[in-house]
TrEMBL record:
Gene name in the database record: thiC
Top-level class of the enzyme under EC nomenclature: lyase
Pathway: Cofactor biosynthesis; thiamine diphosphate biosynthesis
Official protein name in the record: Phosphomethylpyrimidine synthase
Species in which this protein is naturally found: Halorientalis regularis
Superkingdom field: Archaea
Role this protein plays: Catalyzes the synthesis of the hydroxymethylpyrimidine phosphate (HMP-P) moiety of thiamine from aminoimidazole ribotide (AIR) in a radical S-adenosyl-L-methionine (SAM)-dependent reaction.
Residue numbers binding substrate: N68, M97, Y126, H161, S181, R182, G183, D222, G223, L224, R225, E261, Y288
Pfam family, one: ThiC_Rad_SAM
């Protein structure tokens, strides 16, 4: 097998994956290679993931969005899982995490990898726990076996909660919401009952060897992330972050790619500090945030509370954002929740990129604004982040084809359309000219990442569903808790 993308970048090779990424982001292949070689970006691309269209995660590139999919003990079969994958990619997920904890785990994981054009991530401790009667019965050997099997199945990145150490656990005493990460709580229980150090920490170099062989990327889990504003930025969170910095360097010594996960629940004024601290402690390894929610008071709207924090995180240098749906803290998301969560997060990622001045990010906004001012409704729909919703909302009141050239919509009405009035005023005195040029997105510095769905695939690239699998239209499509505090 060839080496990892990191090993090959360090050796000076521009791999086919780096070239593809450079095309997608309209960057120089050599720049991509340098970013990967320095650990500042990752290309999660397991050697066994044949369906993958390579993408890159790093603060110098368009901010990416992950969607969680996967079954639970009570829901979903293989066809249902493939429907969720299809929906997530269709609505613009840049990666998906299969967080299945129910039955048929191998079959579902292998099918997801076989069909997914985007990287697939997992949390292997979830599967390991299903194989024992009691958490305390987990062994290092079982954990390594599960990790290796999932690597062999083609998983591109795995969340490994190796930074939760026994000495960190007392630091969570007195928290308002304790340990809210599933992986973190499982490992804390194991350490308490066995009186030993976290086996993912003590066997970290064994995991590195497995990952190096298959080119699996670490997503170093933040098992002690805060589950409430009250617990944000506390000693437990930052003690674990220091360990994640240490583990980042160990993984790099093994030529293994690394990104680092972050919180969770963080007040708005602390979000940028959290990003900057991670970048410093982890030597610039890509930061992958789970939200963060900037207030705890809006269950039912946590795709919004967290997208606000995610926007600030993206502006400050986060590389990937894990979406949150409106059902967070309340129940399993359905298809429409997945759509709303992805839209909220793609808005956050793009708004953060615009604010950060990423090359070409604003071109998309400018192109849509030009179409809007020209009353080019079809182009406005095509450029919209969710073209189907934009068209549907417009056509609810003005469905006729003739309204696709109309110089108004039903919001202000024909008499009060300010853009029409403005244009007429400008034509009358001859001094103010209407915009008549169009931003050419194909020439934009952000190229493909400027086209909806953001940073990912045009709808036409989404693989056809296997025979017998119907597309999702309102059926259950449960994702998983991003903030983990449920
Ligand atoms: S009617 Fe109002 S909302 Fe609609 S196009 Fe004109 S200015 Fe915009």
């Amino acid at each position: 097998m060839p080496g990892t993308q990191l090993a090959r970048a360090r050796a000076g090779e521009v791999t086919p994956a780096m070239k593809r990424v450079a095309d997608r982001e309209n960057r120089e292949p050599e720049f991509v290679r340098e970013q990967v070689a320095e650990g500042q970006a990752v290309i999660p691309a397991n050697h066994g993931h044949d369906a993958l269209d390579p993408m890159i995660i790093g603060r110098e590139f368009a901010t990416k969005v992950n969607a969680n999919i996967g079954n639970s003990e009570t829901t979903s079969d293989l066809a249902g899982e493939l429907e969720k994958l299809h929906a997530a990619v269709h609505y613009g997920a840049d990666t998906v995490m299969d967080l299945s904890t129910g039955s048929n785990l191998d079959e579902i994981r292998e099918a997801n990898v076989a069909h997914s054009p985007v990287p697939v991530g997992t949390v292997p401790i979830y599967e390991a726990v299903t194989q024992v009667d009691d958490v305390a019965d987990l062994t290092p050997e079982l954990l390594l076996d599960v990790i290796e099997k999932q690597a062999e199945q083609g998983v591109d990145y795995q969340t490994i909660h190796a930074g939760v150490l026994a000495e960190h656990l007392p630091l969570t005493d007195g928290r308002k919401t304790g340990i809210v990460s599933r992986g973190g709580s499982i490992l804390a229980q194991w350490m308490e009952e066995n009186g030993e150090q976290n086996p993912l920490y003590t066997h970290f170099e064994d995991i590195c060897e497995i990952f190096a062989e298959h080119d699996v990327t670490f997503s170093l889990g933040d098992g002690l992330r805060p589950g409430s504003l009250a617990d944000a930025s506390d000693d437990a969170q930052f003690a674990e972050l220091d360990t994640l910095g240490e583990l980042t360097r160990v993984a790099w010594d093994h030529d293994v790619q690394v990104m680092v996960e972050g919180p969770g629940h963080v007040p708005m004024d602390e979000v940028a500090d959290n990003v900057e601290r991670q970048q410093e402690v982890c030597d610039g390894a890509p930061f992958y945030l789970l939200g963060p929610l900037v207030t705890d008071v809006a269950p039912g709207y946590d795709h919004i509370t967290s997208a606000i924090g995610a926007t600030e995180a993206a502006r400050a240098g986060a590389a990937m954002l894990c979406y949150v749906t409106p059902k967070e803290h309340l129940g399993l998301p359905e298809a429409e929740d997945v759509r709303d969560g992805l839209a909220a997060y793609r808005i956050a990622a793009h708004a953060g990129d615009v604010a950060a001045g990423k090359p070409g990010a604003r071109d998309w906004d400018d192109a849509l604004s030009e179409a809007r001012y020209q009353f080019d409704w079809r182009r406005q729909f095509d450029l919209a982040l969710d073209p189907e919703r934009a068209r549907d909302f417009h056509d609810q009141t003005l469905p006729g084809d003739n309204y696709k050239e109309a110089r108004f919509c039903s919001m202000c009405g024909v008499e009060f359309c300010s853009m029409r009035i403005d244009q007429d005023a400008r034509d009358a005195d001859g001094e103010m000219e209407a915009i008549d040029d169009e931003t050419d997105l194909s020439e934009s510095a952000a190229a493909e990442v400027n086209l909806p769905p953001t940073g990912s695939h045009d709808t036409s690239d989404v693989p056809d569903l296997p025979e017998g699998v119907e597309p999702v239209h309102g059926d259950e499509a449960d994702g998983e808790s991003a903030t983990g505090d449920d």
